[in-house]
Amino acid sequence: MEQKLIVDGKRIDGRTFDQLRPMEARAGILKNADGSGYFRLGRTIAIAGIFGPRQVHPRHMEEAEAAILKCRYNMASFSTTERNRPGPSRRSKEISKVIREALMPVLFLEEFPKSAIDLHVEILQADASTRCAGINAASIALADAGIPMRDLIASCSVGVVEGQIMLDIAGKEDTEGDVDLPIAYYPKRDLITLLQMDGMVTREQLKQLLELAKKGAMQVYEAQRQALRSKYLEE
Amino acid sequence: MISIDPEVIKELTTKGIRVDHRAFDEYRKIKIETGIIEKAEGSARVEIGGTKVIAGVKMEIGEPFADRPDDGVLITNAEFLALAYHEFEEGPPRENSIELARVVDRGIRESKAIDLKKLCIENGKKVWMVFVDIDILDHDGNLIDAAALAAIAALLNTKFPKLDIIEEDGEKRYVIDYEQKTDPLPVTQKPIGVTAAKISGKILFDPNIAEESAVEGKISMGITDNMIASIQKSEPGGFSIEEIDHIAEIAMKKASEIRAMLG
After folding, report:
1. Radius of gyration of chain B (CA)
2. Buried/exposed code over A124-145 (b: 16+ C-beta within 10 A; e: otherwise)
3. What is the complex's ipTM, to 2 decimals?
4. pLDDT tens, B41-66?
5. What is the CATH number of the domain that holds B191?
6. Which domain holds residue B29?
7. What is the mean pLDDT of residues B92-116?
8. Is B227's CB within 8 Å of A98's CB?
């Protein structure tokens, strides 16, 4: 018989339904990058590095009135159970796009015409919600690079496992769950800037999932702010 | 090519007007034709307003994925043909076409539209592989909905080619006769893509190309039987939970209307 994913109202890793995995957020972890960030969510580990604003390569991508944000999300070959083939895949290209679009609303790109901000997100270990951890590390890195921002973007995912709505699915919940829904959240405007979903939900469930995701994102937001505070205010 | 200043679109939208005078939840005229490519196992041509796409289904025999030994394989790909729009270029698929194909694929997969178990020929060894290839012929906005509709219409139109399994010296040979079509593909759901755009803080459906130049963000939902099977937000710009819920409500209605056109 298959192992049940919910026992006595608890999840396989002992969490409650509305609990995130342990988080660790840090700013300025790299020397060369203009800004960098680290975000760990359970066993999922992401680092992000920023270069720029700087000259655009190739030049034809340059925009006259604003900086462009370039994003590359990559999973390290050793980050997964079975080795992940190096280099861009269709999946990583799509994720790079949605990460970029999730972050753009908070950036004052118009302050830096004809320049590029290069964002590199590297997933060192993958156990679900890698795009979320990547966005969280990227937000910290952008702030660490001193790029003017309206707010930080905080990200987490929610899912449905054995009919139960839960925050931050991981491990077996991810491979055997029915629904996976990552969001990115822009707290000061109360807007969702990344939204994807796989699975089958009713309209009512979708609303509940989004409300829960927002609560999770606010905890992430606090961890991101704390990371920046401890680098810049308490040193 | 005539283009309309995005600022004009934003201003009109604020006043509650769309450039083509549609209601905010109104789709352009939709046309579906099926069985247009004889060489394909299934095909469909879809128009939504000026957007034209064609989807063809080809089937081959291949090996299943190790973790799903008795499931057939579904592979969706999209080509943004250079003849469809002045900004499309030849070459390997880019971000937008990859995203579109993956969104269409998720709509079909997550709604379990195809019974993949019925595509198993020999457990762990041979399965049918279903290739859904989508060509974008003319881009007038809302490519995702047109592509999703063409994909499901083509799948509904698909018939297995004749398969002969010949045993020789204890070895099996699989011979496909593409000229002879047999049973229809087991399609059990009809997922429909519905896309909403946010312009000047307002939500409208089925954006045309002029409107797409002015969008803050778009949300595409794959809808099956009053359930949401997939969601993708694209373009920078955010949505509130209330806006997302409003989109879900309208998307359900629009999906039933569009699904009815599939017959």
Report:
1. 20
2. bbbbbbbbbbbbbbbbbbbbbb
3. 0.89
4. 999 999 999 999 999 999 999 999 99
5. 3.30.230.70
6. 6-261
7. 93
8. no
